[in-house]
Design a protein that fits this description.
The complex is a heterodimer.
Chain A: H1 5-8, E1 10-12, H2 15-35, E2 46-52, H3 55-68, E3 74-81, E4 93-97, E5 109-116, H4 121-128, E6 138-142, H5 151-159, E7 162-165, H6 173-187, E8 192-195, H7 196-199, H8 202-211, E9 224-233, H9 243-256, E10 259-260, E11 272-277, E12 283-292, E13 301-310, E14 313-321, E15 327-334, E16 337-345, H10 351-359, H11 366-378
Parallel strand pairs in A: 2-3, 2-6, 3-5, 6-7, 7-8, 9-12
Antiparallel strand pairs in A: 1-4, 4-5, 9-13, 10-11, 11-12, 13-14, 14-15, 15-16
Chain B: E1 21-26, H1 31-46, E2 54-60, H2 66-80, H3 88-95, E3 98-102, H4 108-122, E4 129-133, H5 140-149, E5 159-163, H6 171-182, E6 190-192, H7 200-211, E7 224-232, H8 241-266, H9 275-288, H10 297-300, E8 301-311, E9 314-316, E10 334-339, E11 351-356, E12 363-370, E13 390-396, E14 400-408, E15 416-424, H11 425-428, H12 436-446, H13 455-474, E16 481-484, H14 490-497
The chains are: A alpha/beta, B alpha/beta.
Bound molecules: NADP nicotinamide-adenine-dinucleotide phosphate.
């Protein structure tokens, strides 16, 4: 188990040694800062526990934590565990550091690494508990597909107020999302669950909602006749599971009371084609289709179109990523003529933005849980 | 037909976006519009906080083509936006819905009305209109009259009016202006700006006081020795002399910002965080402030005017040497005063207020100084370094809260020193807070008046300030000068020293 001290800081032989080292680092940083005429504040608003089995994930987490340190001062504990089966010594190693965002001096974040061998599962919670700052919420960010059946997963979940996953990284989302739904249901009242794939949808949901903030267009919500959602695939057209796009459909369905009329089925043209039923029994064809887009991650939304008919008029509400992918265009077309069009900034989200948004939400997000339930009901 | 709420707008993440609406800016070609309003609107567009259909119509007397108006605004936004560089695509999409109408000709208001109806009709908008008065105050009356006479505020949607500060220059003119507004708008349609209330940290005063249970019990005459509120600027009068030389610090800062800050620290808990509940409590406490009688003006207020001096090492002119200031001007650029609140909570607790231009440092803060421990158990020499507990709410810069308390110096024996426990708002939460105008425009578009001053508040504030200004003008009271870069005239130190206290060093 090789640990890079440049990233993770000096090793410490146990919890008290580690706390001593952190205190020493804080003093040194604050002495250095006051020489430069800065002041240093230690203010923490949360504990962030990151669970990773891959080095890239652990490192990405460390970078993200440093970037966010100004906005979300936290104690971050990265638990980096070898995959089961890998052989290593059985000691847990601990390292600590005070990362800084782009060279700024303020200390507002403490980073701890717990490096563990693959068979350390049962011991992990006991290593993390003494490191948590008291009285502050615990966010648990699981960077892989969670081991839903492992006892140590439950033990870690016990510590959490918020549980964060990224279903874009799941190997088999169609199976794992069902399990996430169970985790949600079990957590009710104790912890809330969220998914970066849901966070990625926030601006899209905002834009879709905005159409129906307009009183003249709100009635169309009850008479939607079709939905099309595009998601990104890379150039070689390798199939990815459109879990993000389906989550958006799940959101519409749960908010508007649509039910699954038939199960998800792959469409011949790629993607999926299925239908749902409105409260009044009308069928709504839903099409989720792959698009090749530069500059976006696989699975990210590329656009959507909602069609509705009312009083003999056909309305289309469209959100499309513009070329270059830094903007979206939203337009409303009624009976074929463009009523209004707007351009708004929407860049591909970075992990830091996603985590940053999640860290501002302490309660459960029921809208997410309902959307997930609707998605799971589809498959 | 009543519409049900939008079922999609639910959950903790989606912001509340205003209904489709039109912002009509009177004085759209002016300085405020260029410096504050347009940059705020552009930044709202950038954050996707504007409604899906949104129009801006600027008006003023001059003739100006839409294209030229947009070009001017583009320049202004490029210079004054808090985010740079300008996102050209977003700007273009926003500017497409920006128009200009001249009200300089006799038919001006008719044209304005027709233009609004036409533009709104094209977008299927119900005619929700926010009129923003950003002209010199002398034009407010005629503009409101024009809005009324041409029925611009009578639409199928809502209409509201935002009025910039200063709201009147004394009680009579403020009453008069409210009356004029009320010929066309109901009070709940009138949004009076005090941009201080749009600042995040000012709102944080209410959160600190009413979301935490531990401070409120201490927030009374029993535990508080006195309160100091400071609004210090390093700037001089700059380009605003034309206005400032008539207003002075008492009208420019005391009547609005200082009294609002005082109301927020001293008010009773409101029953809810909504516009009328909060403002009811503010009015109550403003009414309880003991008016300063003419005879008391000399010993409970101090005014001053800045003389030449140094600011951050640079030599600066005195007030009377500034451009557009009369060489014998008696306008005050500094005010300090002591106020009392006659109610159960605050009886006998002095509130010291001060504001000045050309102070050594820019700082707005509220300091609550608590009483000393009732009985000193430590020997006099061990407690020599102990100062009373002070809770400081810093509004700007370095927004935050600090609490001073005594702690043992780590050596053998007991020696006590005061230490500051500091909470820097920016270090705990996002640093780039929105500009106050973004918050206020968005609130006005949503119809939330919590952060705007109500008629009775403004009038009560004038009732407190008018007699002081009158006494200064009538009496033989000094107008001492103070060197630029100092904390005001020595008379101000004497004012507080008479009570056995001293001003804090902010
Ligand atoms: N500038 C600031 O930073 C600031 C800060 C706080 C409060 N305010 C307040 O905001 C208001 C505007 O200030 P400002 O600095 O923007 O003034 P300004 O630069 O002089 O602009 C005044 C604007 O009003 C128009 N105007 C003047 N007289 C008019 C009339 N009779 N009818 C219709 N339009 C008229 C002017 O255009 P035409 O001459 O073409 O009509 C111009 O567009 C004032 O009440 C001021 O106290 C300003």
């Amino acid at each position: 188990m090789v640990v890079d001290n440049v990233i993770w800081g000096a090793p410490a032989s146990g919890v008290s040694a580690l706390e001593r080292e952190l205190a020493r680092l804080r003093r040194a940083r604050s002495a250095h800062a006051s020489e430069q005429g800065h002041t240093v504040a230690r203010a923490s608003v949360l504990n962030l526990v990151v669970f990773a089995t891959r080095e890239v994930h652990a490192k990405r987490a460390a970078r993200t934590i440093a970037d966010l340190s100004q906005r979300h001062p936290s104690r971050a504990i990265v638990v980096w565990v070898d995959r089961p089966g890998s052989t290593a010594t059985d000691r847990l190693a601990m390292h600590c550091d005070l990362p800084r965002a782009d060279g700024r001096e303020q200390v507002s974040c403490e980073q701890i690494l717990v490096r563990a061998p693959g068979d350390a599962g049962a011991r992990l919670a006991s290593a993390v508990i003494p490191l948590l700052l008291p009285d502050l919420p615990v966010f648990l960010w699981w960077t892989d597909t969670p081991p839903f059946d492992a006892p140590h997963f439950d033990a870690m979940l016990e510590l959490a107020d918020r549980f964060i996953i990224d279903s874009a990284d799941f190997a088999r989302p169609e199976l794992s999302l069902k399990r996430v739904r169970e985790v949600c249901a079990r957590g009710s009242g104790r912890y809330g669950v969220t998914d970066f794939n849901w966070t990625r949808l926030t601006p899209w949901r905002d834009l879709v909602s905005a159409f129906f903030d307009v009183p003249a267009w709100r009635p169309y919500l009850d008479s939607i006749t079709g939905v099309r959602v595009g998601f990104t695939v890379d150039a070689d057209g390798r199939e990815v599971h459109p879990s993000q796009a389906l989550l958006l459909v799940g959101w519409l369905a749960s908010r508007l009371g649509w039910l699954a009329a038939q199960s998800l089925a792959p469409s011949e043209a790629g993607g999926m084609l299925f239908s749902m039923t409105r409260g009044d029994g009308t069928r709504i064809p839903v099409r989720v289709r792959p698009r090749f887009e530069r500059g976006l991650e696989e699975g990210d939304l590329s656009g959507l179109r909602i069609q509705a008919t009312r009083d003999g008029k056909l309305a289309e509400f469209v959100v499309k990523r513009a070329a270059g992918n830094a903007h979206v265009t939203t337009s409303v077309i009624i009976d074929g003529s463009l009523v209004t069009e707007r351009v708004m900034p929407l860049s591909a989200p970075r992990v830091g933005d996603l985590l940053g948004e999640e860290l501002t939400i302490v309660a459960s997000d029921h809208v997410y849980e309902d959307a997930l339930a609707a998605l799971v009901a589809l498959s | 037909m009543t519409l049900t709420a939008n079922p999609l707008r639910a959950g903790p993440r989606l912001s509340r976006i205003p209904e489709p609406s039109t912002l009509v800016i009177f004085g759209g070609s002016g300085d405020l519009s260029a410096r504050k309003l347009m940059p705020a609107l552009y930044n709202l567009a950038l954050q996707r906080l504007l409604p899906p259909t949104f129009l801006v119509v600027g008006t003023a007397r001059a003739q100006l083509a839409d294209a030229l108006f947009r070009d001017e605004l583009h320049k202004a936004v490029s210079e004054f936006s808090r985010t740079k560089p300008i996102n050209e695509e977003v700007w273009r999409s926003f500017a497409d819905h920006v128009h200009y109408v001249s009200t300089g000709t006799s038919g001006g208001y008719g044209v304005l009305g027709d233009t609004l109806n036409r533009l709104e009709g094209e977008l299927g908008m119900p005619g929700n209109r926010l009129f923003y008065l950003a002209t010199p105050p002398s034009a407010y009356g005629p503009i409101v009259h024009g809005i009324g006479a041409h029925g611009l505020a009578r639409t199928n949607g809502w209409s509201r009016v935002v009025v910039e500060k200063p709201f009147g220059n004394d009680l009579a003119s403020a009453v008069d202006l409210s009356e004029k507004l009320h010929e066309v708008f109901r009070e709940d349609q009138v949004f009076r700006i005090d941009h201080y209330l749009g600042k995040e940290t000012v709102q944080n005063i209410l959160v600190l006081r009413f979301a935490n249970a531990i401070f409120e019990p201490l927030w009374t005459r029993q535990y508080v020795d006195h309160v100091q509120i400071t609004v210090a600027e390093t700037l001089g009068v700059e380009e605003r002399a034309g206005y400032y030389d008539h207003a002075g610090a008492s009208r420019d800062v005391v009547q609005n910002h200082l009294l609002q800050l005082m109301a927020l620290v001293a008010m009773e808990p409101p029953i809810a965080f909504d516009a009328n509940a909060v403002r009811d409590e503010k009015v109550k406490v403003l009414r309880a402030i003991r008016p300063i009688a003419t005879d008391d003006v000399p010993n409970t207020t101090v005014r001053g005017q800045y003389a030449p001096g140094f600011i951050e090492g640079m030599a600066v002119r005195g007030y009377r040497e500034e451009d557009d200031v009369a060489p014998n001007s008696t306008t005050e650029t500094y005010v300090a005063m002591r106020l009392f609140i006659d109610n159960w909570r605050w009886e006998g607790t002095p509130f010291y207020l001060r504001t000045g231009k050309r102070m050594p440092k820019r700082s707005t803060e509220i300091a609550i100084q608590f009483r000393s421990a009732p009985h000193q158990v430590f020997s006099r020499e061990s407690a020599a370094g102990l100062e009373p507990n002070t809770l400081v709410l810093r509004i700007q810069p370095d927004e935050g809260i600090s609490l001073k308390f005594g702690a043992k110096v780590p050596v053998q024996g007991i020696r006590i020193r005061s230490v500051n426990m500091d909470f820097v708002y920016g270090a705990s939460f996002m640093v780039d807070a929105p500009d106050a105008y973004e918050t206020l425009i968005l609130d006005a578009l949503r119809g939330d008046a919590t952060l705007f001053t109500r008629r009775d508040e403004v009038e009560q504030q004038w009732r407190l300030v008018d007699p002081i200004i009158d006494a200064w003008r009538a009496g033989q009271i000094d107008l001492p000068t103070y060197a630029s870069g100092s904390w005001g005239p020595t008379e101000a130190d004497l004012l507080i020293a008479r009570d056995g206290r001293t001003w804090r060093q902010p």
